[in-house]
Amino acid sequence: MGKSKLTKQSENFADWYQDIVREAELAEPSEVRGCGIVRPYGLKIWELIKAELNRMIEADGVENVYFPIFVPLENLQAEKAHVEGFSPELAIVTYGGGEELVNKLAVRPTSEAAMYRTYAKWIQSYNDLPLRLNQWANVVRWEKRPRAFLRWSEFLWQEGHTVFADEAGARAEVWHMLGVYKKIYEYMAIPIFSGLKSESEKFAGAVMTTTAEIMAKDGKAIQGATSHYLGTNFAKVFGVEYLGADGQKHLGHQNSWGLSWRSVGAVIMAHGDDNGLRLPPNIAPIQIVIVPIYKDENKAKVLEFTENLKNKLTAYRVKLDNRENLTPGFKFNHWELKGVPVRLEVGEKEIDKGEVTIFRRDLNTKEVVKLAGLEDALASLLVDIHKNLYEQALAFSKSHIHRIESLDDIKDQVGFFEASWSEDPESEKLLKEKFMMVSRLLPQENESQAPKNKKCFITGQAAKHDWLFAKSY
Amino acid sequence: MGKSKLTKQSENFADWYQDIVREAELAEPSEVRGCGIVRPYGLKIWELIKAELNRMIEADGVENVYFPIFVPLENLQAEKAHVEGFSPELAIVTYGGGEELVNKLAVRPTSEAAMYRTYAKWIQSYNDLPLRLNQWANVVRWEKRPRAFLRWSEFLWQEGHTVFADEAGARAEVWHMLGVYKKIYEYMAIPIFSGLKSESEKFAGAVMTTTAEIMAKDGKAIQGATSHYLGTNFAKVFGVEYLGADGQKHLGHQNSWGLSWRSVGAVIMAHGDDNGLRLPPNIAPIQIVIVPIYKDENKAKVLEFTENLKNKLTAYRVKLDNRENLTPGFKFNHWELKGVPVRLEVGEKEIDKGEVTIFRRDLNTKEVVKLAGLEDALASLLVDIHKNLYEQALAFSKSHIHRIESLDDIKDQVGFFEASWSEDPESEKLLKEKFMMVSRLLPQENESQAPKNKKCFITGQAAKHDWLFAKSY
Fold first, then answer.
1. Residue A281 falls within a domain, yes or no?
2. CATH number of the structural domain spanning residue B351
3. Is A175 helix (H, G, I), strand (E, B) or coil?
C-alpha cells in the first residue's frame, strides 16, 4: 500500500477515486453486482456523519420511525409520476416463505409509498400537524453503472417525511431542511451550492425539488442531498387528510428530504489529493495518529512514552501505530493515504527535548511544538484544519464556475457553468446528448433575479433564470 | 387511551402484549403482512439499547462493517444445514432493474453466506486473526404467525461475525459474547438464563449455539440473543483459510452472534403490568415526566414553575406534559401506560411549600420530597428503580422454575421446568407435540454436573444433563 498505487487525480480522476476507495480500505465490490461492501474505516465515516445529522434532526423536533423494507407494488403504482420514475430501478420480491406471492413486493427505493397510507390513519385533525418523522434505512435502486458510495444498487440513508396543514408551512420546511443539510456539509468542511432542480431533474412525484450540490475536484457535480415539496400529489392518492379548524376536510401538504452515504463519496472527492484522503477532523475515524520513531537501543523508551502520550489524549480519536517491522516512512504514507488529519512523530530526540513533530494532512506541512500545552495546541490545530479544508474547497468551487453565453463557451473547461436558460426541457436533452451535462440547479439567490443575458445559451429563446450546469456523478 | 384498553395479564397475556404495543404507540401492523411499523416511542427504546450495545461491542475491539442486503442464492445453498434451516423463510428477488435475474437473490436472513467468501479474501495469514466484525442491519425471515418485535418477517439486529485461528479461541469468544449479552440485558434490568441449545434448537450451520433466555411474566421463554460456534463448517465451504506460523494452510474457526429488537419485546414482557409498560431508566425514551396541576387562577404560575423545573433537569430525558384540556388523572394514566419511570406532580401547594410529589412507576407509589436537592434525589431514585426492576424480575424468574421428574409433573404450572434429560431429539419432538414445549437451554452451570435424577423425565432412559424446558415466544 502507498502513494504508488493511486492514479494521479490529473490523469484520471475517476480512476483515482476507485483507487483511493480500495487502497484506503473504505469499500469494495461485493458478490452481488451493483452492491458494495463498506469496510470499517469507510463505515465509521458514515457513522460519524449520521450521528451528527441525527442529533440535528432530533434537535429540530423530528422523531425517528421504522417502516418495512417491502412496499406493495400497487402502492408504488398509485402515484403516476412516482412509478414512472422508479419502475426501471426496482428490485421485486416474488417468492416469500417458500410460496409465490400473490401480491408482489418491491424493495423500497424510497418510502413515500410505504408510509403515507399509514400517515393517513395517524392524522385526524389539524392538531396532529405538522407530523415530522425520519427514518434511517437501506433502500435499493437498481444500478447498471455502479460507483462506490455514489451509485450502488443498495445504499444507506435517512429519509424525512413530513406533513403540514398548508402549502406555506411545507414550502418553508423544504428550505429549512436544505439549511440543515448545508450545516451537515459544513460539518464535513464542504461548501454546497443550494437551489432548485429543473422539471426533468426533480424527484419523481414532487412539485419542487431543492438540492445541495457539491463540486468534486475534477469540477463535476455530486448531488449531496435533496429536499422536496410533494404538494398534495401523494396525499390525494393515499388519503392524507385532516379535519381543519373550519370543520372541513383538507389534504395535507407533504415533504420528503434525504441524505445518503453519497456524502462519504463527496468527502473523498471534495478533499482528497494525490497522496490519498484528507479527512475533516469531525468525521475522521482517527483524528490523530502517533508514529513512534526508534532504533533497537531506544525502542522501549520511545514505545513507553508514546503509549503514555496516547493515553493522555483522551479527548480525541487517537491511534498509536506501534506495528513492528514497518518503517516510519511506510507508516507516514499509510496514514496520509487514509487521510488522518494529524500525525505526531515522536523519537528519542523529541522526548529528550520535550517536543513533538506535528504533521498536518491538510497542508502536508510539519512543525515542532512543545509537549507542554500539546493538548491545547491540538485542539486549536483541529479547528484550524477544519477551517482550512473548508476554505480550500470553497476557493476551488468559486474559481471553477465559468460564466458562458453559448454552447461554444463550454470548450474543455473544468467546473460548473453559469448560464441564462430558457428552462426548456428539450434544450436540456440536447445538452445531455452533446455535452453529457444537465442543469444542476437554479441557485436560490438567482430565483428572483433577472438573468444576466436574457437569451438562452442553448436555444437563443428568452431566458428565465441564471442556472448552473455541470457534468455529474 | 387508558388502563381500560388493556386486557389484564392474568386473563390473556398475549392479548395484553398486543394491547400494550398498540396503546403505548410502540408499533403497529403494516400493509405488508408479517412486517411491522415501529413508531417513535418504540424505536427510541431500540435506539437506546443499540447505542449501549454498540459501545460495548466497540470497546471490545470489534469494528462495524456493512454487507449487501442481497445474498446470491447459490451462496446460501453452499452450507447444507444452513440452507435447510433457512430455505423455508427466504424472500427471493427475481426481478431487478426491469429484467428477470439470471442469478436469483435472497434477502439476507442472516449474513454468514453474504460475508464469508469476502472474509476469505481478507484473511491471508495468522497475522490477520482474529478478525472480529459486526453489522447493524435489517434481515428478513418469512413469518406466518407474526408477533410485534418478537416475530416479524423483517427485523433489525446486530450480527457479529468473527474468525479465530483455533477452536479454543473461537469457543472462548462464544461465551465471552454471551457475557456481553448478559450485560446488555442487565442494562435493561433483565436477568437472563444462559447456556447451550439442544441439537434441534441450535442455529442452522452451527456446531454449538449458546443462548440468553428471558422469562416473560406469563412464564414463557423469550430467546433474547444467541452466540454460535460455527466450527469450520462455513470456512470449508467459502475457503476461509490462513497461513499459519507453521507455513501450513489452516481453516479458520468461526463464530456468529446476534441480538435483535426482540429485546424490546423482552423488556415489555419482563417488566410490564396491568397498567402498562414499566421501563428501566436506561432505555426509557422519557425518564421523567412533569405533570403541572393547576386551576385557571394559578395556571400561569404553575406552568412557569414547571417549565423552569424542566429546564433545570438537563441530565435526564424529561418531558413536560403541559397539554391543554386534559385532566391530571388522564395524564397520570397516559404516562403510566407508557412506562415512564418517574412522574413529578407539581401544583401551587407544592410550589409554595418548596416540595414536589414523586411517583415511581416500578412500585406505583408516591412520596413528597423537598425541591432543594431534587436533582440528587432523582439520580439515586433512578438507580433504585433500575435495581428494583431487576430484583423483581429475578425473584419472579427464580420462583417460577419447577423441578419435574416426569411429564405428569408439568400440569398447568406456569414457568420454566427443570428436568433431567436424555437429549434424545425424538423425545423433544414428543414434548413439542403434546405440551407445545421444547428445551430452552442446558444452563451453563449444569454442563459439567451430573443430572439430579439420572433417568430422563420423558423416556426413562439414562439422562445426560439437567435442562430447562418451557413454552416460548
1. no
2. 3.40.50.800
3. helix
Q: Which residues contact A280 (CB under 8 A, 6 or more apart)?
A: A187, A188, A189, A267, A271, A341, A385, A386, A389, A390
For residue A130, cis peptide bond before it (omega within 30 degrees of 0) = yes
Residue of B nearest to A86 (CA): B97
CA–CA separation, B420 vs A394, rounded Å?
73
A134 to chain B: closest CA residue? B40
Segment holding B137, helix H or strand E? strand B131-140
- The CATH code of the domain that includes B407 is 3.30.110.30
Beta bridge partners, A223, equal A213
Q: Taking chain B, what is the end-to-end CA distance rounded to the nearest angstrom?
A: 27
Are both B74 and B144 inside the same structural domain? yes
Pairwise CB contact (< 8 Å): A90 & B98? yes
**Whether residue B263 sits in one domain with residue B169:** yes
Average pLDDT by stretches of 10, chain B with 473 residues? 77 98 98 97 98 98 98 94 93 96 96 98 97 98 96 98 98 98 98 97 96 98 98 97 97 98 98 98 98 96 97 97 96 98 96 97 97 95 98 98 96 96 96 95 96 95 97 96
Determine the structural domain holding residue A428 and report its residue range.
Answer: 401-470
Range list of β-strands (E), B296-340: 318-320
Question: Least CA distance to B64: which residue of chain A?
Answer: A40
Does residue A244 sit in the same domain as residue A301?
no
CA distances, A221 to each of A80, A216, A217, A252 (Å): 29, 6, 9, 34
In a domain, A277, yes or no: no
Q: Could you give the ipTM of this predicted complex?
A: 0.97
For position B389, what pLDDT does the model report? 98
Nearest CA in chain B to A154: B68
Q: Specify whether A320 is located in the same domain as A439.
A: no
Q: Are residues B386 and B406 both part of a single domain?
A: no
User: CB contacts < 8 Å between A and B, how many?
Assistant: 149
Instruction: Looking at the structure, tell me whether residues B142 and B107 fall in a common domain.
Output: yes
Q: How far is A64 from chain B (nearest CA, A)?
A: 5
Final residue in a domain of this structure, among A321, A352, A384: A384
CA distance A312 to chain B (A): 18
Residues of chain A with Cβ-Cβ distance to B114 below 8 Å are 30-31
pTM for the full predicted model: 0.97
Residue A299 domain-assigned (yes or no): yes
Q: Which residue of A has its CA nearest to B43?
A: A65
CA distances from A309 to A315, A316, A327, A342, A348 (A): 12, 12, 20, 14, 14
Are B86 and B184 in a shared domain? yes
Report how many domains make up chain B. Answer: 3
- Cβ–Cβ below 8 Å for B90 and A71: no
> Given A384, A416, A431, which residue is the final one in a domain?
A384
Query: Is the CB of B118 inside 8 Å of chain A's CB atoms?
Result: yes
**Among B89, B94, B133, beta carbon nearest to A94:** B94
Contacting residues of A for B44, CB less than 8 Å apart: 63-64
B74 has a chain A CB within 8 A of its CB: no
B69 touches B159 (CB < 8 A)? no
A162 near B CB under 8 A? no
Cell 422539471 maps to which residue? A199
CB contact at 8 A, B399 and B414? no
| Residues B127 and B230 grouped into a single domain | yes
CATH number at residue A140: 3.30.930.10
CB within 8 Å of A288: residues ≥ 6 apart? A313, A316, A317, A318, A319, A340, A341, A342, A343, A344, A378
**Angstrom distance (rounded) from CA A330 to CA A318:** 19
Separation of alpha carbons B470 and B439, rounded Å: 7
Q: Is B1 on the interface with A (CB under 8 A)?
A: no
The answer to whether residue A395 sits within a structural domain is: no
Report yes or no: A163 and A256 within 8 Å, Cβ to Cβ: no
Q: SS3 for A404?
A: coil
